[in-house]
Amino acid sequence: MKAWIDQRIGRQFLFVFYLFIGLILLTSLAVYMYTENRIEQTTSSLENISERRTNATELFETWQSMQYEMRGYVILGDDAMLARVKEKQDLIEIQTAWFETNAVTEKEKTYASDARTLFSAYQQRVMPSLERYVIAKREGTVTEPFLKMPTLGKVTPQAEPPADRKFKINSKSAADMSASIVDMETVFTEYRNSLNEEENQLREQLATHTKWAQVLWLLSLLAVLLVLFIVARPYVKRLTGQLQELIVNSERLADERIIPIPAAVSSRNEVGQLTNSFRQMASSLATQRNQVEEEREKTARLLHSIRDAVIYVEHTTHEKFANQALFIMFNQAATKRNEMDLYRLDADLEELGFQVDQKDSFFSFMRRAFDGESMEESVTFSMNQEERFIQMYAEKIHLRGTRHGTMLVFRDVTQETEVDRLKTELVSTVSHELRTPLTSIIGFTELLRYRTMPAERIDQYLGMIHQETLRLEDLISNLLDVQRMESGKQTYHSRPESLHTILKETIAIHQGASEHHQLDLECDTNLYVYGDRDRLSQLFTNLLHNAIKYSPEGGKVAVCVTNDKSDVIEISIQDTGIGIPTSALPKLFDKFYRVDNSASRKIGGTGLGLAICKEIAEGHGGTIRVDSSVGHGSTFTIILPKYAAEDQLSS
Predict the structure, then answer these.
(1) Which helix (DSSP H) or strand (DSSP E) does residue 522 occupy?
(2) Are 576 and 537 in contact (CB under 8 A)?
(3) Which residue in 334, 361, 406, 462 is a FRET match for 510, CA 20 to 30 A apart?
(4) What is d(CA 524, CA 521) in angstroms, rounded to the nearest whole number?
(5) Dihedral, CA of residue 203, residue 208, residue 214 and residue 216, to nearest 10
(6) φ, ψ for residue 245, nearest 5 deg
(7) Per-residue model confidence (pLDDT) at position 444
(8) Residue 636: what pLDDT?
(9) Residue range 199-241, pLDDT digits in tens
(10) Is the pLDDT of residue 184 over 90?
(11) Exposed, middle or buried, 174 (CB in 10 Å: 0-12/13-18/19+)?
């Protein structure tokens, strides 16, 4: 038998297992039957005691309630209280009868007999006396405000009570009657106390039985373990020795960096076969892991090298992986920089959508992509208030004919979108702005050529032709300036210049051209800036021209220069014109951008003037900003570096 068991490890395990199960079942069954019998007996007794204590408590509470009602009847003489007393008497009759029926022990029979005797004495002696007393008070025979026992004795005929009566209720003596009631309450209290003592004894017995059951089960378990230790120790010792090497190699295999290859063994049992299979598996895994690591690193480096952002979502595990470009595009923090693998994306895709301006379109596209719909088209959306434009498309990833995930590709098309926008704006602006003055020039030229008219009309038309020609020249100059700025060929011939002189000359030009506007200047004559005089004049000219143009009703245009700070000068140009909507302020200095409202469309413009102003201000090391409110005018503020006196001396 032993030799047959030793041939297979499985037989050894089964032998030990069956032996353990059999011993545990036998000992547990014996302990269970003993404990179940004891607990069932004790529980039944406890339930019986609980029922009797509950009924005794209810009887006592009913008795007390009846006495309270009776006292109220004596004091108030209310018949409704007397009716409730009768109801309590009926209930006491039922409760007392239960104890008489279910009394088993002598103590219970004595309690039932005492309860019946007390109830009968109260009904026969106390109740009639109190009722006669109330009747006497109603008839006026008794006039005392409070019940006095001698008075109760006078209205109640006294019969000689039996000599063996237990409760001697004497209505002539309040002390005797109180003592009898105390005796009555003592009957209830002693009976309930006896039930409590009996219950405590049973609970102690139950606890003792439970402890003995635990001790017996523990002793039986120790005995089973001792038998198993003696019987199974040789098998376990032999088996653990054979498996120890496999455990060590398995732990090394769990380390991703090491693939152990154990030595071959000559044993032919299951452990020997397992060791040889483990050796072959480890060798194969080492080769496959090297290949997988190489391919994964190659794939990761390829995806990290492209500028398009990529997200791969695994459908079964819902894990998300991304390349480096995604974190740059969406301003996300990479979890851990690793060029040999893709990044794990901890953020939800919904969080990425918070930066998208067209959220509904974005989430709709994502939902359709993950639902498996055909997604041949791509979608373009903007981010962070058109700060960046992204083109996105989705591809379904199948492995062995089964869809495993979805790949989302995000391509930054901001530059292409901006080029298309600038191209469209350029064509639109040039075609519109060129066509208008050219149409006027051609029309007036044809009139002068083919018609005879007075000299003053000819002079008027020539003036209009000259004005439209200057308008064309200004448009072409702006386009050339923008082209030079875009190509980086814009140059500045800087030298110290008086800011007061430049502003005064610029204001003088515009003051003469407008009769409905009042131009005011506040500037210290000792302020100097280091810059190109022509470009600074162009900057202030554009801003003053806009202030006048966008104040069609006329008004005041204030130019105020402050030098509260030691290193910069602030030049503010304030008008009281139509103002600029808040939504248009972030794009106001973009090329070809024009405010889209009815008032601005009537006035017109190329959308290049403010872009040139921004370039000139930044080219001089300064900045420009705007504050505006629709209907209340605008304030453009240019901040330029101050050119101090010591700078003049050093230069």
Answers:
(1) strand 517-522
(2) no
(3) 462
(4) 10
(5) -140
(6) -65, -40
(7) 79
(8) 93
(9) 787 778 777 777 777 777 788 778 777 877 776 677 667 667 6
(10) no
(11) middle
Q: What is the CA radius of gyration of the chain?
A: 54
Q: How far from chain centre, in Å, is Cα 400?
A: 39
Q: From residue 156, how far is each of 125, 133, 140 by CA, in Å?
A: 9, 8, 16
Spatial neighbors of 327 by CB under 8 A, at least 6 apart, are 333, 334, 343
Q: Which amino acid is at 298?
A: K
Amino acid residing at 34: Y
135: CB partners within 8 A, 6+ apart? none
Average pLDDT, the chain: 75
Q: Are strands 320-322 and 309-314 parallel, antiparallel or unpaired?
A: antiparallel
Contact between 28 and 213 (Cβ < 8 Å): no
CA-to-CA distance for 449 and 213, rounded, in angstroms? Answer: 129
Note the helical H segments in 122-148.
127-139
pTM: 0.40
Helix (H) or strand (E) holding 37: helix 9-76
Q: Please report where in the chains the tokens 């004790």 appear, as a residue.
A: 42
Task: With beta carbons less than 8 A apart as the criterion, state whether 394 and 375 touch.
Answer: yes
- Give which of 320, 330, 378 is closest to 352, Cα–Cα: 330
Q: What is the 3-state secondary structure (H, E, C) of 297-317?
A: HHHHHHHHHCCCEEEEEECCC
With H, G, I as helix, E, B as strand and everything else as coil, classify residue 588.
coil
- Are 286 and 279 within 8 A, CB to CB? no
Q: Which two tokens stand for residue 575?
A: 């008008």
In single-letter form, the type of residue at position 128 comes to P
User: Distance between CA atoms of 535 and 310, rounded to whole angstroms?
Assistant: 46
Render pLDDT for 579-624 as a digit per residue (tens, 0 to 9): 888 888 888 887 777 776 555 555 556 677 788 888 888 888 999 9
